[in-house]
């Protein structure tokens, strides 16, 4: 049924070729049709780790023109076009596959959700790109996620005090919470977090751990 719905959607909203006029960040571009928020991904914002790398990698994938593909919802609340972007490759899929953006699909724009989430799982496991570069932090790990997905605990597994500066947890729903201070050996700290299906632990150097909610 979904394949039929998407076939009809493509019939009424075929791919449109537009010129590329600029790159805002790793998930937003300017085109001759207007500003486009690329569907299916979420890239780091200015000031966040991997912002520059993500933006530059997106630039490397784009030519002078791209093709835009619509899903169910065509614009966001800021008036940006919501589109999958295609060049020689699927831009969102390549951004996720190479570790420069996270898979981020909001209902009902789910056309490539399974492919994007599978690509992210592989990128995480393989330590791909800037986002999934492993941190050398061997002390901190996620110890528990609440069954209702509203909080996450981390534990210091080392026999010495661990610094929490630069350490944060992030949900697949984009919420981020920062830790501060230090954590004694065997001690735990926790954050309230509105989660989707999993939560990730990072520090300023890279990816540490993840756990399903």
Q: How would you describe what is shown here?
A:
The chain has four helices and 16 strands. It has 213 residues and is α+β, with helices and mostly antiparallel strands. Helix 3 packs parallel to helix 4 (113-126). The mean pLDDT is 92. 20% of the residues lie in helices and 36% in strands. The chain has two domains: 2-126, Beta Barrel (OB fold (Dihydrolipoamide Acetyltransferase, E2P)), CATH 2.40.50.90; 140-212, Lamin Tail domain (Immunoglobulin-like), CATH 2.60.40. The strands form five sheets. Strands 1-2-3-6-5 form a five-stranded mixed barrel. A four-stranded antiparallel β-sheet has the order 12-11-15-16, with no helix packed on it. Strands 8-9-14 form a three-stranded antiparallel β-sheet, with no helix packed on it.
Q: Layout of helices and strands, plus pairs?
A:
Elements: H1 2-12, E1 16-25, E2 28-31, E3 34-38, E4 40-42, H2 51-61, E5 65-69, E6 81-86, H3 91-97, E7 102-104, H4 113-126, E8 140-145, E9 151-156, E10 162-163, E11 168-171, E12 176-178, E13 182-183, E14 188-192, E15 198-203, E16 206-212
Parallel strand pairs: 3-6
Antiparallel strand pairs: 1-2, 1-5, 2-3, 4-7, 5-6, 8-9, 9-14, 10-13, 11-12, 11-15, 15-16
Helix pairs in contact: 3-4
């Amino acid at each position: 049924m979904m394949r039929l719905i998407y076939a009809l959607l493509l019939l009424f909203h075929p791919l449109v070729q537009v010129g590329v006029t600029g790159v805002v960040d790793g998930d937003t571009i300017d085109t001759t049709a207007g500003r486009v928020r690329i569907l299916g991904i979420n890239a780091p914002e200015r000031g966040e780790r991997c912002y520059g790398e993500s933006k530059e990698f997106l630039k490397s994938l784009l030519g002078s023109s791209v093709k835009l593909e619509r899903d169910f919802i065509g614009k966001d609340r800021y008036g940006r076009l919501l589109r999958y972007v295609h060049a020689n490759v699927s831009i969102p899929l390549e951004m996720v596959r190479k570790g420069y953006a996270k898979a981020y699909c909001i209902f009902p724009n789910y056309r490539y959700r399974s492919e994007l989430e599978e690509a992210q799982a592989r990128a995480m496991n393989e330590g791909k790109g800037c986002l999934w570069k492993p941190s050398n932090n061997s002390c901190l790990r996620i110890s528990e996620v609440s069954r209702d997905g509203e909080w996450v605990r981390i534990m210091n597994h080392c026999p010495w005090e661990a610094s929490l500066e630069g350490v944060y947890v992030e949900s697949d729903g984009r919420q981020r919470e920062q830790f501060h201070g230090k954590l004694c050996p065997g001690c735990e700290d926790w954050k309230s977090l509105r989660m989707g299906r999993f939560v990730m632990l990072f520090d300023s150097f890279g990816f540490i751990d993840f756990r399903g909610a």
